[in-house]
Amino acid sequence: PDVWPTSATLEYPALTLKVGQRLPIRATVLPANYNQGTPRWSFDKPGIASADPNGLSATLEGLTPGVTTLTFTIGNATASCVLTIVPKTQPEPDVWPTSATLEYPALTLKVGQRLPIRATVLPA
């Protein structure tokens, strides 16, 4: 007998990805013994994210900043996930000191005497 899916869920109801980030997502379909329907993955706003589908799973990738809803459909069962794509953060460049100077070029201290001294490191 034909067994159609009655429900579908995605493992994440919402996700945030960076541009260029990839993440797998899986769908669960009930009843488990369904034998009708073809899995389909779609977005309400194409171009913000992509899905590389493989049956009940897909690999998502953030393409450009924005918000889109991923919908998984099989027969009359659907599930969705709201995807927020954020910009890829740029790493801070390494900044190495180019010079260091001390407040006093020379000091003479007595035994046990203390004197605070300040160092200036550039660039600040």
TrEMBL record:
<feature type="domain" description="BIG2">
    <location>
        <begin position="6"/>
        <end position="78"/>
    </location>
</feature>
<dbReference type="Pfam" id="PF02368">
    <property type="entry name" value="Big_2"/>
</dbReference>
<dbReference type="InterPro" id="IPR003343">
    <property type="entry name" value="Big_2"/>
</dbReference>
<protein>
    <recommendedName>
        <fullName>BIG2 domain-containing protein</fullName>
    </recommendedName>
</protein>
<dbReference type="InterPro" id="IPR008964">
    <property type="entry name" value="Invasin/intimin_cell_adhesion"/>
</dbReference>
